[in-house]
Backbone:
């Protein structure tokens, strides 16, 4: 399905089968000489068919269409192997672009899942050892991509729009949004979504992903924005209101976790199992492996945030991270 949202700017719906995100919103901007396509869909036949059909309907050649990828998740970059050509530019933040190519060379996302299944306590808790079932790995793009690396403040001009690149770390370390100050549009990727809250997960305990995310929310809330074009679900007209709701969601999640963690040690998986999830599965045991991996990573991000704030104590025992309430 294609919808013209603004002059020369189209939303293309790419289905994401068997995934709670349902669809990816890819955006296409028609320019005089060059066009821009933002985010792609999974490396999956059904995604490629939807994208190819949309490009045909729009009468688009990829030879004069450049790509901007908001972040490395495979629902955003999966089809890059089909869409990049010798004559187009693929823009992405340096940090996430490096991860995509490192994954192509050395399967870093698979290794990350192997480690995460272990140190989150998912395996000890009975989750099958299937790291390849996680979506970033399962639907990853193929082929080494020649990225043009973007940084804070870089510009992309297309179709009468003048976009500024905004680094918005949190959902991924290199997540990037595009802001158009004249039209007051924000292309938000997975940084801000309506109805659902972006997954803030931590896979390696080398950063405070939740703190980064909350700071990136403040950063975009300060902008003058009339319309947000997110990568999933419906368009957002009240950015500040939505940012406030998402911040409240994390406050509640932290309260939820502080009510779960007690004086007995618990792994991230054991905490995730008891947390409230806005998913259609009735029990933790019904969660597909992909969802369990992401849920444990989300628990880990919140627990690590609380560890760094001094409210939760962390220990590493036989390769599993355990958490307990700090006693005063
Ligand atoms: Zn994402």
Residues:
């Amino acid at each position: 399905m294609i919808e013209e949202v603004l002059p020369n700017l189209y939303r293309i719906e790419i289905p994401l089968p068997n995934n709670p995100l349902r669809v990816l919103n890819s955006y296409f901007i028609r320019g005089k000489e060059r066009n821009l396509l933002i985010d792609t869909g999974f490396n999956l036949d059904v995604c490629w068919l939807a994208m190819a059909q949309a490009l045909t309907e729009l009468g688009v050649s990829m030879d004069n269409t450049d790509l901007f990828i908001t972040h490395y998740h495979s629902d955003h970059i999966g089809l890059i192997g089909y869409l990049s050509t010798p004559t187009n530019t693929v823009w992405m933040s340096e940090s996430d672009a490096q991860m995509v190519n490192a994954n192509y060379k050395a399967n870093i996302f698979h290794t990350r899942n192997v480690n995460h299944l272990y140190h989150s306590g998912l395996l000890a808790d009975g989750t099958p050892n299937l790291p390849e079932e996680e979506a970033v790995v399962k639907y990853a793009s193929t082929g080494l991509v020649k990225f043009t690396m973007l940084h804070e403040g870089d510009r992309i001009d297309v179709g009468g729009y003048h976009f500024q690149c905004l680094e918005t770390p949190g959902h991924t370390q290199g997540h990037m949004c595009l802001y158009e100050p004249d039209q007051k549009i924000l292309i938000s990727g997975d940084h801000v979504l309506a109805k659902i809250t972006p997954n803030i997960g931590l896979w390696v305990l080398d950063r405070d992903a939740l703190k980064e995310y909350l700071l990136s929310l403040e950063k975009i809330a300060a902008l003058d924005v009339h319309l947000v074009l997110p990568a999933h679900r419906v368009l957002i007209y009240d950015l500040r209101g939505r940012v406030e709701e998402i911040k409240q969601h994390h406050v509640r999640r932290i309260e939820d976790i502080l009510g779960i963690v007690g004086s007995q040690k618990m792994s991230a998986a054991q905490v995730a199992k008891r947390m409230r999830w806005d998913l259609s599965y009735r029990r933790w045991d019904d969660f597909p492996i992909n969802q369990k991996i992401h849920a444990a990573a989300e628990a880990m991000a919140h627990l690590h945030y609380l560890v760094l704030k001094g409210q939760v104590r962390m220990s590493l025992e036989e390769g599993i991270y355990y958490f307990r309430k700090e006693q005063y």
